[in-house]
Amino acid sequence: MSPMFVPGPVDVAPEVLQQQAKPMMPHRNKDFEAIFQRSEGKARQLFFTQFRVFLMTNSGSGAQEASVRNLSKERVLSCVNGSFSKRWYDCAVANGKAADKLEVQMGQAIHPEMVEEALKGQKYDLITLVHNETSTGVMNPVKEIAEVVHKLSPDTLIAVDAVSSLAGAKIEMDAWGLDVVFTSSQKCLALPPGLALCAVNDKAMARAAETPNRGWYFDFVLLEKHRVKDSTPMTPVMPLIFALDFQLDRILAEGLENRFARHSAMAKRCQDWAAGKGWPLLAPEGYRSQTLTVVVNPPEFDCAEFNKFVAPKGIRLANGYGDLKGKTFRIAHMGEITPANVDELLGLIDEYMAGKGK
Ligand SMILES: *Cc1c(COP(=O)(O)O)cnc(C)c1O
User: Fold this and answer.
1) Which of 10, 61, 291, 321 to mutate to test the pocket of ligand 1 (most atoms within 8 A of CB)?
2) Residue 1: which pLDDT band, with cuts at 50, 70 and 90?
3) Most CB within 10 Å of its CB: which of 97, 164, 175, 194?
């Protein structure tokens, strides 16, 4: 398989893709309920939670919307350090929520002291935090931020977007005291797009029950009513759930710790290679993503041109996101990507630059 180093949709293993071709069945029958139940059970291991994981027929952004609709009655503190965390703030505002931005420059991390400061000045019932900012390659210190929130404002719920990191980096939802954590299928899980996995603890469920205007499609209370019967209120995306069931077996067979180690080894290789070339990384030391590396490139490196150079091999690299397009490029090393794939890519970038006399 020729790898695509893009942060979703990522390559899907052929045997996983094939699972989607299984015959359909009624979704309210024992056979499907058994698949749903075991998939959810395995998914809990990925989140390190004993609570519940909703399998939602929508992409990750739907889980951003679900968390603001279900968990905030008063005011949201939205931590913004890139495009996806900015989207979550916009989503809160678009849903009529009172929201404040705790914003830092793109490429910087949100630090616990910043959250501490924000919580001292204002009461919030929800804080939204992106674990891995896919636009900048910054990983926020979620565990340390959660500690500050617990200490200063125990009633503030913590929702974490782990769309581009869960299943590639260890996020211990229960041990860290996170109330909602979600991901979508097309990133580190290496599945096709269209499914979100959203873990919700009991504290968040209790808040949802008393929050008005939760809507219908994303209502946690309604989702829970059906989940306890191993089902969903609406027709679920069955082909993706067949693939999820199978892919979770593959992931657990690799071993979670091995999987996380594979991702950090690939991040280290990219970081060392960039340092060797004198190409800076956008993310500061200590806050660098384990699942994608964002490199500040010299003007001679043209990502679109490089992609033409490697297209015959089926390889693809991601350009910078939004305003960072042309200024950075992104090596996503998630899902099925191996260290050998990364070495091949880095060698090709060196070859392309050598062709330019650099
Ligand atoms: C990709 C991404 C999203 C959006 O997810 P969709 O599944 O495309 O809706 C949200 N947050 C982060 C951090 C992402 O990387």
Assistant:
1) 61
2) low
3) 164
Phi, psi of 211 (to 5 degrees): -95, 125
Ligand 1, from 110, 134, 171: best to mutate by most atoms within 8 Å of Cβ?
A: 134
Ligand 1 centroid to Cα of residue 229, in Å, is 29
Query: What local confidence, expressed as pLDDT, does residue 358 receive?
Result: 77
CA of residue 187 to ligand 1 center, whole Å: 8
**Contact 84 CB / ligand 1 (< 6 Å):** yes
Token pair recorded at residue 327 = 């200024």
Question: Could you tell me the maximum CA-CA distance found in the chain, to the nearest angstrom?
Answer: 64
Task: Decide if 157 contacts 33 (C-beta within 8 A).
Answer: no
Rounded Cα distance, 14 and 82, in Å: 33
How deeply is 105 buried, as exposed, middle or buried, from its count of CB atoms within 10 A (0-12, 13-18, 19+)? Answer: exposed
Tell me if 128 CB under 6 Å of ligand 1. no
Q: What is the mean pLDDT of residues 110-117?
A: 98
Residue 263: C-alpha distances to residues 102, 167, 197, 270, 286 (Å): 29, 10, 20, 11, 16
Using left for φ > 0, alpha for ψ between -120 and 50, and beta otherwise, residue 122 falls in beta
This prediction's pTM: 0.98
To which residue do tokens 């910043």 refer?
A: 114
pLDDT digits (tens, 9 = 90+) for 231-258: 999 999 999 999 999 999 999 999 999 9
Q: How far is the CA of 291 from the centre of ligand 1 (A)?
A: 14
Angle at 115 (CA atoms; ends 112, 121), nearest 5 degrees: 145
User: Could you tell me which of 159, 156, 128, 169 has the C-alpha nearest to residue 46?
Assistant: 169
**Two tokens at 354?**
């050598």
Expressed in angstroms and rounded, the spacing between residue 321 Cα and the centre of ligand 1 is 12
Residue indicated by tokens 């390659």: 137
Residues 180-195 pLDDT 10s? 999 999 999 999 999 9
Domains of the chain are 4-8+255-355 (3.90.1150.10), 14-253 (3.40.640.10)
65 lines ligand 1 (CB under 6 A): no
Query: Among 161, 180, 183, 188, which residue has the most ligand 1 atoms within 8 Å of its CB, making it the best to mutate?
Result: 161
